[in-house]
Design brief:
The complex is a heterodimer of chains A (203) and B (318). Chain A is 83% helix and 0% strand. By secondary structure, chain A is mainly α. The longest helix of chain B has 18 residues. Chain B is globular and about 45 Å long. The chains are: A mainly alpha (203), B alpha+beta (318).
Amino acid sequence: MKNQSSRIFLHIISLIPAAWLFWQMWLWYNFSPHGLTANPIEFITDFTGNWTIRFLLLTLCISPLTKLTKWRLIKYRRALGLYAFSYGLLHFLNYTVLDYFFDWVLILEDIFKRPAITFGMLAFLLLIPLAITSFKYFIKKMAANWKNLHQTIYIITIFAITHNYMMVKADILVPVIHAIILSGLLALRVYFSVNKKRMFKKI
Amino acid sequence: MLIKIKGSWELKENQITSLKDYISRRDFIKNAGIMGAASAASLMSPNLALAEESLSTVSNLYDGRDIMDEKTDIKAVRGYNNYYEFGMNKDNPARYAQSLVTDPWRVKVNGACENPGDYNVEDLIDFNALEERVYRMRCVEAWSMVIPWVGVSLSEVISKLKPTSNAKYVYFETLADPKQMPGLSRGIIKWPYREGLRMDEAMHPLTIMAVGLYGEKLANQNGAPMRLVVPWKYGFKGVKSIVKISFLEKEPNTSWMRLAPQEYGFYANVNPNAPHPRWSQATERRIGDFRRRDTLMFNGYGEQVASLYSGMDLKRNY
């Protein structure tokens, strides 16, 4: 029961940014005062992009936190990962639909000619198989391959933060903070794997 | 009888009027007398009404669709700004610039000119000769606005300062006062903000020194008490809250060139064929519009300014 309510709590928290965004977009659509600035589409780009990266980092926090604290957090990881994908999907749809309105010539030019966009698009495309295979059926069916596939989340997060870093005009503060957090998480991962090998040697 | 012939850069009335207003224009004319009296009261100068000019355009055909140039909502003009001295977010300047003291305001003039010295704004700008100029403003970030500026041609300011034949460039600086400008605590840009123009660009009649918009004094976040407006260049050339004007022999190193020389050049002419390394400049979003529209060469002012750059490779001199 407690398990169930904490899960619901996690969903509510994760949906708040999206709920707020859709509410503001509804106000915008109705020509009412809204919180999306005078350039709503640019605001939505930043908003959905930032939440994608936050959820990617939160997803990556689960395994090291579990190891450090012995809290049983793994059960929340799939939801966090799927929220990362969902916010990434909103980011992608905002770019292709609202921003460029299916102008595929410009979109493809962006993807192939501008590395900043290439990294973002790669991150999104690589997230798709992870989202599809996140269900129990695939976890069982794919066995060891599943783990290998889902390791790509590290590369995806590196690509996503690189994309953000390359896109900002002058203020690199936010992507740099994200990069520092990611480096910390990667360092912990290396630390744990080295420790594990040592433990095996002792035995 | 006085017949005023509009230049080709000036927008025809129907191009700055919404379709709805245009269709009901006869009703509008009936009411115009009343409205005119009301708006004149808010104008900065009684002579402004006489000197009122309208917007320029070469073509208002975008992407095969006929889109009109409408003045951008004043709330957006005053609420959506890039003015990093007051913070990095677009709504920061409106919030943090209110306490900026713009009166008294001193402007230092030096370099290759006969009248260097410290000036008040009124010494440089003839407030009896203010004009309204409705210009498109294209930001390098691929959004744009249409703004009814109030000001004088920069050439009128410059002629008061009498540059010598050595003056090949004009250089401008924005105020950099950490006590009044919270954004200076972060070294995003090497403060003060620096900009410049080639002398012929500065003397071009479309280049103005603005002191107001929408018939009122400039809000602080729009660059009070005076700022540059160069309608055929990206918005960042429009240096705000100017405290220094220098006449130079050599091309100055401007702020964005210093920050990212491979992305921002000295000329910064609006050019749909010269993409920014990280995004296309072929299209733009007019603030208030949903769809993008095509960006015009020289922001649509090519007929007036293209000759300034004849023989230059504008893809290399971006």
